[in-house]
Design goal:
With 353 residues, this protein is an alpha+beta fold. The protein folds into three domains: 3-99, no CATH class; 130-250, Alpha-Beta Plaits, CATH 3.30.70; 258-346, Orthogonal Bundle (Arc Repressor Mutant, subunit A), CATH 1.10.10. The protein is built from 15 helices and five strands. It has helices spanning 3-6, 12-22, 28-43, 48-61, 73-115, 120-129, 154-167, 190-203, 220-237, 252-256, 260-271, 282-293, 298-304, 309-323, 330-346, and strands at 138-144, 173-177, 180-186, 208-211, 244-246. A hairpin with a 2-residue loop joins strand 2 and strand 3. Helix 11 packs across helix 15 (330-346). The longest helix is centred in the N-terminal third of the chain and has 43 residues, at 73-115. InterPro entries: CdaR-like_regulators, CdaR_GGDEF, PucR_C-HTH_dom, PucR_C-HTH_sf. Belongs to the CdaR family. Pfam families: GGDEF_2, HTH_30. Residues 116-234 form the CdaR GGDEF-like domain.
């Protein structure tokens, strides 16, 4: 055992010698002293296995001469067990405290990073501790499932283990925020986020994953994160069937709703009359949505809606009668389709505009 470890054996031989002579057990102060030494050893990063081996070696070297008799051997061995146990207890206590402090620092960093509420220069310095270089571009993927997840959830550990096994140390950070799984990866390594999406989809039993665009600079992570969150919400509003959605593929929708009042006016002006239909606006709105998704092919739209082609045609004619817009006319079709998208984005007709 090297000199750097000798300090953690201070007083050990003397304790064994006194125990051999008196048969007593270690006092409270002696046990507390061994615990403190264990804590100090853990704080500077020494190996517990090496230190325990050092205690055993010191026991052999300093074995008390009087401990050879049959009566004193059990007392000395009991003292060795007490001393080593106290030392290990202190060591483990210090490790648990360090882990809690590390977890708290990591959570504070994640919160500051994803809320963008810390000084960017200081944030960049802290990021290097967790494997991120914020001067580079990063992209963020966010996964949601049927239940909220935190950093200790089995799903989180499962996904994190899969990524580490596949990519090793590639400056990837897996965490959770507000019940979502979050993956932060270098912006030029899309394969990492694609793999995360695959693993998260499987681990969350079919949850949805949104991937934000790569953004540069210290504030890039929070921008990509917010974009991924908005994409999740957008996918839910549009009732998209895809389980993995990319913000880059849905950019047209935020553009359409940038002027919310203008879109609301379009929806009410074009589709408002559908509320006068028997059964309200929803059945005809759904018919238009499926018809457009089917490439304006009546037979395919009818199949998806479990209708006959004749029934579908009747619904489209009813839309024409109520709104004055013909879904088969290219000019009218664009207006109708834009209004249908706007209705889904704004939650109409369930929500008042």
């Amino acid at each position: 055992m090297g000199e750097q470890h000798e300090a953690y054996l201070s007083g050990y031989a003397e304790i064994l010698a006194e125990v051999a002579g008196t048969g007593r057990r270690l006092t409270r102060d002696e046990l507390d002293g061994r615990r403190r030494l264990g804590e100090e050893a853990a704080e500077v990063g020494h190996s517990l296995r090496t230190l325990v081996r050092g205690h055993l070696h010191a026991t052999r070297v300093s074995w008390p001469g009087k401990a050879g008799s049959e009566g004193t051997v059990p007392n000395v061995l009991a003292a060795v067990a007490q001393a080593v146990d106290a030392f290990a207890e202190g060591y483990e206590r210090a490790q648990r405290l360090a882990v809690r402090q590390e977890e708290a620092a990591r959570r504070e960093f994640i919160d500051d990073l994803l809320y963008g509420r810390s000084d960017l220069g200081r944030l960049a310095e802290r990021a290097e501790r967790f494997g991120l270089v914020l001067s580079r571009a990063h992209a963020v993927a966010v996964a949601e499932g049927p239940e909220p997840y935190d950093d200790t959830a089995p799903v989180t550990r499962l996904v994190e283990t899969a990524l580490i096994s596949r990519f090793g140390d590639r400056r990837v950070l897996i965490t959770t925020k507000n019940g979502h799984l979050v993956c932060i990866a270098p912006g030029d390594q899309d394969e990492i986020l694609a793999f995360f999406a695959k693993q998260a989809y499987a681990a969350t039993d079919g949850g949805r994953v949104a991937i934000g665009r790569a953004q540069s600079g210290p504030g890039g992570v929070v921008h990509s994160y917010e974009e991924a969150l908005s994409t999740l919400e957008l996918a839910e509003r549009l009732e998209l069937g895809e389980h993995v959605v990319r913000a880059a593929d849905l950019l047209v929708y935020p553009v359409l709703t940038r002027d919310r009042q203008a879109m609301a006016d379009l929806v009410l002006s074009v589709l408002g009359p559908l509320r006068d239909a028997r059964g309200g606006a929803e059945p005809l709105l759904r018919t238009l949505e499926v018809y457009f998704d089917a490439g304006c092919t009546a037979a395919e739209a009818a199949r998806r809606l479990s209708l006959s082609v004749r029934a579908l045609t009747y619904r489209l004619e009813r839309v024409h009668q109520l709104t004055g817009a013909d879904a088969s006319d290219p000019v009218h079709r664009y207006t109708l389709q834009t209004a249908v998208i706007g209705a889904r984005l704004l939650g109409w007709p369930d929500e008042d505009l």
